[in-house]
Amino acid sequence: MPLLDFDGDYGRTYDARIATLIPAYEAIFELAAAATAALQPLAQQALVVGAGTGTELPGLLAAMPQALFTLVEPSAQMRGFCQALIERVGASDRVTWGPDDLDALGPTCFDAVISHNVLHVLTPDAQERLLQQMAERVAPGGCLLLSSYSETEPPELELGLQIGVARFKALGMDPATIEAVMAARNSKVFSVNHQRLEAQLLQAGLEPPIQLVQALFNRLWLSRRCEGGATA
Ligand SMILES: C[S@@+](CC[C@H](N)C(=O)[O-])C[C@H]1O[C@@H](n2cnc3c(N)ncnc32)[C@H](O)[C@@H]1O
Fold first, then answer.
1. Tens digits of per-residue pLDDT, 179-206?
2. 205 partner at 20 to 30 Å CA-CA among 2, 68, 142, 230?
3. What residues does ligand 1 touch, defined as CB less than 6 Å away?
4. Nearest residue (CA) to ligand 1, atom 11
């Protein structure tokens, strides 16, 4: 099965497989939602970029009970799963679909911008563009929550890779899939560099990212735009 084919088998089986692929997958959602509840309990507008099948949405909808949500998701198959979830949880009146490209969104800014597990499916250049587009959308006083695969430097890198493989085995992943997942590094999955992320966020006028979670190579960062901070 090709990895990261969101409109094919990978997308069709995404929900069944993703918690094995990403350590602390649900814990990261829980903490990101808690961060929005703490910082933006009265949020009116939230943007979720790369919503996928929508697993992060129920927690975010509850954390920001007054917010209207704009979702961006380029894969038709993933959008379909997400729409079904939105209807199941009775949130249709709080959610609208935005354009695939954030530049087409108009001048709106958001109290919270959330993007889980999207940056690492993009090449470093595309990561930088999307990051800049997301940062521009954070309103003064607002927050950006990002989770992504983000490797540590050697020598910890090698140790982390070993632990990652041992974890896949322990969770019952078959050897061919482990090989395919490991081969996807730097060809289909691109580590987000922490230093570059920080430099890009500062350049966009946001505060330095605070790392809220690290689970092996998966991280959750929070970055804020100060009250009165200019948006682009
Ligand atoms: C690994 S999934 C993450 C889905 C969900 N957020 C989660 O954490 O389970 C990555 C999602 O990002 C979407 N995506 C890919 N490129 C994107 C882009 N440039 N902007 C927004 N979403 C994108 C894919 O279609 C896919 O649904």
1. 999 999 999 999 999 999 999 999 999 9
2. 68
3. 6, 18, 49-52, 55-56, 72-75, 78, 116-118, 121, 130
4. 50
